[in-house]
Predict the structure.
Amino acid sequence: MRALLLAFALAACSTAPPELPAPQLPQRAGVDPVIAARAEGVVFRAEGSDPAFVLHLYRDNSILLSWDNGAHQERFPATEPQHPAWSGEVYFVANERYRARIEVRDRPCRDRAFGDAVLPRTVIVSIGGEDFLGCGRAL
């Protein structure tokens, strides 16, 4: 019996498992939205609930803004932020269809989109005659 077990153990050790390719970063991200956003190059994310919007600032210096539950989605080239007297940044961005003003203020914020969480930045987006208020944080 011992000889049989030894034979199985040696056989198991002699055959190497197949080499699998390394997973790509989005595959490793799984279901965690923060890790998935980082894998896509997002460095800052903001969201608001009344009216609803989502804002992503990307590592490649672009901005993606989505509002009206995704009915409108626009990508903008990021400009150098202006630094007003209050602590934060203001971005004036434009593409072929829209101009937008994005204020990121260093002021704690709470929005029902995040439940009870308090995020470190308040975000105000003005686009197409509408103003959106929400919260954001660096990723």
